[in-house]
Amino acid sequence: MDLIKILLILAIASIIPGQIARIPISGQESAITLTDIFVFILAAYAVPYLLMIKKTVRISPPVVTTFFLFTIVATASMVMATNKFDASLIISSSLFLVRFIVYFLVSLIIATIVKRNEIERWLNIFITCGVVFTLLGFVQLGTFPDISALTPFGWDPHQARIVSTLIDPNFTGALLTILASTTSAIYLYKKRAIYLVVAIIFFSGIVFTFSRSSYLALLVLLVVLGLFKSPKFVVGASLIFLLVVTLNNQARERIIGAITLDETAKARLESYSRAITIFKNNPILGVGFNTYRYAQDQYGFFTIDAPLGGHSGSGSDSSLLLVAATTGIVGFATFTFFIISIIRSISFQIKSNFLHLGTAAAFLALLVHSQFVNSFFFPQIMLPIWFLLGLVQSENS
Predict the structure, then answer these.
(1) Does pTM surpass 0.90?
(2) Which pLDDT score, from 0 to 100, does residue 259 have?
(3) Residue 23: phi, psi to the nearest 5?
(4) 40 and 318 in contact (C-beta within 8 Å)?
(5) Tens digits of per-residue pLDDT, 126-169?
(6) Dihedral sign computed on CA atoms, order 192, 195, 200, 203
(7) The pLDDT value given to residue 59
(8) What burial class does residue 152 get, using C-beta atoms within 10 Å of its C-beta: 0-12 exposed, 13-18 middle, 19+ buried?
(9) How far is CA 297 from CA 273, 274, 306, 322, 378, in A?
(10) Are 39 and 11 in contact (CB under 8 A)?
(11) Rounded to whole angstroms, how far apart are CA atoms 247 and 176?
(12) Which one of 11, 60, 161, 291 is CB 3.0 to 4.6 Å from 38, fit for a cystine?
């Protein structure tokens, strides 16, 4: 059991190196990260061990059932996709489903091994890793603000924005929102100044990502905290956030760009349109789970200079549209039931428990965020969410 906990700590800590520690596969388009490696090792050791000692898995049955149903549909969609793509591409695509399953297993492992009196200690480990990750982001902003030199390697040419070790301001903003949610909820219940200071660090990091999807996720987070715990905290935080954004030219221009449809906003709308087109042509089971890159290639959606779409070519800018396009209406329905079951599970004691409040706010914020960036299936986002879900299940039990 101690080894399982050590592996879990290593998996959480692997968020710090993020996408820097990665092993490319299939060219530059896909890669295995350090997070993937530790999560796989954790699951490979913990699941057989817990089954061997007949440890009872403590997690909400509806969550497990709906997850199981979605994975069946996703698998079926890939089987059907053999009519459209070569077997080698289907095998490669199946690895993503395997990763999605393995990451979800983290929540079952945590719910099984973490005792109720250990929850706050595990949250502190997660928050500490988050602080290191955020400080690295500020160091990057000060020393390496222009990452356009990484464009040949498939990364977007962001400038003067915190990208941290995820090398992307939008995914970084999503992770910081989860961290801010967790820390703010603890502060609102515990009233310890250290949590307020750390929450301010995370909020500041979100501001300097200049990520509009993260700004919107942050507003969702504040609304949830305000409705269920502290309107005063939310009003104060919102006013400070609006003041900072108003006074900062870059943040103000980013928000105006969303309203006036700048190049990024137009590209996002085009991404939605592509996903809808593919879904319309494959309405029942989609084109196959994680075959979206190859489907886009067949539709001629990629440019000559990026024949496979770079790192973002495998996804749509909306996680829900991606699910619809790759698994059809059947997969979309089962995935929706899965999401609803999670929300019901984590909202059980939302008004009386900081863990439930922080997790619910983080999950709802991520749902909104993932409609503008495919963040729901990003490894360094999946791990924290399933980590929090596992702790909630431990608390519920």
Answers:
(1) yes
(2) 80
(3) -110, 110
(4) no
(5) 999 999 999 999 999 999 999 999 888 778 889 999 999 999 99
(6) negative
(7) 73
(8) exposed
(9) 15, 11, 10, 15, 21
(10) yes
(11) 22
(12) 11
Q: Tell me the helices (H) and strands (E) count for the chain, helix number first.
A: 15, 2
- Reported as a single tens digit per residue, the pLDDT across 29-49 is 678 999 999 999 999 999 998
Cα(261)–Cα(258) distance, integer angstroms? 5
Q: Give me the residue label for tokens 């980013």.
A: 254
Residues forming beta bridges with residue 303, ordered by sequence position: 306
The answer to whether residues 213 and 166 touch, using CB atoms and an 8 Å cutoff, is: no
Token output for 37: 């490696």
Q: Which amino acid is at 379?
A: P
Looking at residue 86, the DSSP 8-state letter turns out to be -
CA distances, 310 to each of 160, 166, 200 (Å): 22, 15, 34
Helical H runs in 162-262?
A: 169-190, 193-209, 212-228, 231-247, 249-260
* Amino acid in the structure at residue 210: F
Reduce the DSSP state of residue 155 to 3 states and report it.
coil
Say which DSSP state 338 is in: H
Those residues with Cβ within 8 angstroms of residue 36's Cβ, 6 or more apart along the chain or in another chain: 99, 379
Q: Which tokens hold the place of 155?
A: 């990364």
Spans of the chain, pLDDT less than 50: none
Task: Sort residue 362 into left (φ over 0), alpha (ψ -120 to 50) or beta.
Answer: alpha
Question: pLDDT tens digits for 228-238?
Answer: 998 988 888 88
114: tokens are: 């973490």
pLDDT (tens digit, 9 = 90+) per residue, 341-370? 999 999 888 988 999 999 999 999 999 999
List residues bridging with 25 in a β-sheet: 30
